[in-house]
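Reopening closed ticket. The problem is back. First fold of the pair:
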Amino acid sequence: MLIEEKRQQMIELALTYGLTAKETIQCSQELDELLNIQLREALASKQHHYSLSKSAYLRIE
């Protein structure tokens, strides 16, 4: 839920200060970092799952 909260904060800052305001840009960068972390975790989980399923398949043969 942290991503949605940060997104809402960014929207509110943009409406208050404008899209190019220092506060809005900073919040946008923080949101980007949260999204990047989520993406890295999702990719790592997917690779781990693939690795496990592949090793299970190899053991069956």
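Second fold of the pair, where the issue appears:
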Amino acid sequence: MKLKLKSSRKSHSQTAQLVDEHSSAPVAAQPSADELAQLEADYAALCRTCTVVALGSPGGGASTLVRLFRLLWSPPSDVAGLQSAFAPVIQCNTIDSMLVVLKTMGQLGVSFVGDEASKAAAAKHLQEEFVNPYMAPPTVEQWQAWEQAGLRPLYGLPPLSPEQRADVSTATSNLLSLIQDAGVRTAGGSLVSSQVWAMNDPPEYMFRHAARICAAVDYAPTIQDVIRSRQYSRLFDAAEFEAPDSSANDSSGTTSQQQQQRRVIVLEPGQRHSLLAKHTSDKWLRCFVERPAGTMKVTFSTSVVAYTQPAAQSGRTAMHDAIDQVQALCKRLYAPLFTATRAAENDGLLEFSHVPRAPPTGPPTLHIILTRMDLLRHRLCTKSLASVFPDFHQPHPSNFPPSTSAEVDALVQAANAFLAKLFATAAVSAGAPPLLVKVHLQAAILTAEVAQQLTSIALE
């Protein structure tokens, strides 16, 4: 039998294989002592690395989740850079909130008070000429312009051209000329009192803080400004941290300084690279099929008030669409993960078959994050959850809306349990093999409870 030496595709081990010319099955050669040591080191490093892929429905908060991770674990210098990068995003969000107020003024028949001509010109510029560069998907021409200029997206945000920066500056100046107008304040107050903005908190927040956000030349966003900002998640974003891992103990029972840190990588594919798309999911699967158990986490974020938002299809809401997306994710991502083999399509991944006592590979954990919990209390009192999901057993159904604080508390508690079970059941019933599914309830603020949730998602 004549034997050939065949080298596998690039990997740290560069494991050699002996191939029989008359047989299609390769005979794996035993690695050398150096190769085995390198394999063990690589596998140990992989076991200490946790990858979190942040997915979500439109407006569900996947990009906000990545920002929360950055704010939690990034060093102060990186947090300052994040705040600086999001300054124009927040100003554009504030301009969008002014556009809502101007539209409401027309609906209510409210006019500007004093210097109407100049204020009307400023309003016309905002309504007809301003385009929020962070809410529109990049065009092919924009991508080409970025490449030619050597620009790259930062924090998943598109780089602004000098013309776009000038447009934002002009729009900000026009907003400042309108913000103190009595008619504008009347229309804004009407929106706040009618709770119209409760369906989408950022416009109301940005309008309340418009003077602070747009007045300063060197505006520095607060942490809350950054968390509440919104942009179209079209671009890939990734963050890497060294996170404390208090569960890591050495053999003597004490925690060493090296073991206290665990590498965490958080990825947001963005709409352009969505794992929900069938043509891209297989490529992503190859990255994760060889992961040790517990080192791969997938999050899916969606808003709890999405049940009040109509979907494109009649009779459905945005929450119905989110449930469908969860099921599609389980079918396209998880099912192939369990059936994939170490065959040719997975060539190029690290092979750890020679590592003694290697932990078994296992399914990634799906974390379903129900965001905007701070808005749910009001929405439950204005639109019945049972009118959208008849299976929901509403406390005191004959007394809607609830009239006492105790009744509201009971309604919120029942809704929390129902929504958590609704999404968990949808994931498990998608036809995929058994999954580890966890549901989290989250508000748009970096509290100690939210910080604990993020740590649990990444490290447990």
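Update: turned out to be a display glitch only; the data is intact. The chain has three domains: 1-30, 47-80+233-459, 87-220. The chain has a mean pLDDT of 76. Please close again.
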